[in-house]
Design a protein that fits this description.
Blueprint (H helix, E strand, L loop, with lengths): L2 H15 L9 H17 L4 H13 L12 H11 L7 H12 L10 H10 L8 H15 L5 H15 L5 H6 L1 H19 L2
Helix pairs in contact: 1-3, 2-3, 2-6, 3-5, 4-5, 8-10
Protein name: HD/PDEase domain-containing protein
Organism: Parvicella tangerina
Pfam families: HD (PF01966)
């Protein structure tokens, strides 16, 4: 497989074709996820072969946003299935890539180590110091594609998602990201308390 050519192909499409009002899910998000995949893959001791399959999935995972906002993962899979044979990827590798991409949808629980690393990388910022800045970009994007949220509702949504819907899967992310995520939840709860009781 020619990972470098496949990467160049999809990166060019992401930069040129993703809608400019994807303030969160723009190409910059893909590059951020790829960076997290790199560090998690090293820490989790992935083989070279698995690493490049996972990295390919990371570059493709949000490509479906080129065509639609909701349920974009199956579109990303179609794009991968159409293009990756041209870069020498085997049917088996493409099947694995499909499963990794689909694991990033909210309704699917990751099963394999590669899927778990991908999900942790996709939400790496939940346990980082730049959480607030990235959350602001998501709120701005949702105002375009879904709805505008009041400060109170937005804080409540973040708390509920972080507490009830999200979890880290790899030992590395649990060790390195979970403490900062828990701190973030407390900060958000404090902000909500101040807002409600003002």
């Amino acid at each position: 497989m020619d990972f470098s050519e496949a990467k160049d192909y999809i990166v060019e499409r992401l930069i040129k074709e993703l809608p400019k009002d994807l303030y969160y899910h723009g190409a910059h998000h893909t590059f951020d996820v790829v960076k997290s995949v790199h560090s998690l893959s090293v820490a989790e001791k992935l083989s070279n072969a698995d690493f490049f399959v996972l990295l390919t999935a990371a570059y493709f995972h949000d490509a479906g946003y080129i065509y639609r906002y909701e349920h974009n993962e199956p579109i990303a899979v179609k794009m991968a299935r159409k293009s990756l044979p041209d870069f020498g990827y085997s049917p088996e590798q493409i099947d694995v890539i499909e499963n990794i991409i689909m694991a990033t949808s909210h309704s699917i629980e990751p099963k394999t180590k590669l899927e778990m690393i991908m999900c942790d990388a996709d939400h790496d910022y939940f346990g980082r110091h730049d959480y607030q800045k990235i959350a602001v970009s998501l709120r701005k994007e949702l105002a375009v594609y879904e709805a505008e949220y009041s400060d109170e509702i937005w804080l409540d949504m973040q708390i509920k998602y972080l507490e009830n819907n999200h979890r880290y899967y790899t030992e590395t992310a649990i060790r390195e990201k979970q403490p900062q995520k828990e701190h973030r939840i407390q900060v958000l709860k404090n902000q909500l308390d101040v807002l409600v009781n003002a």
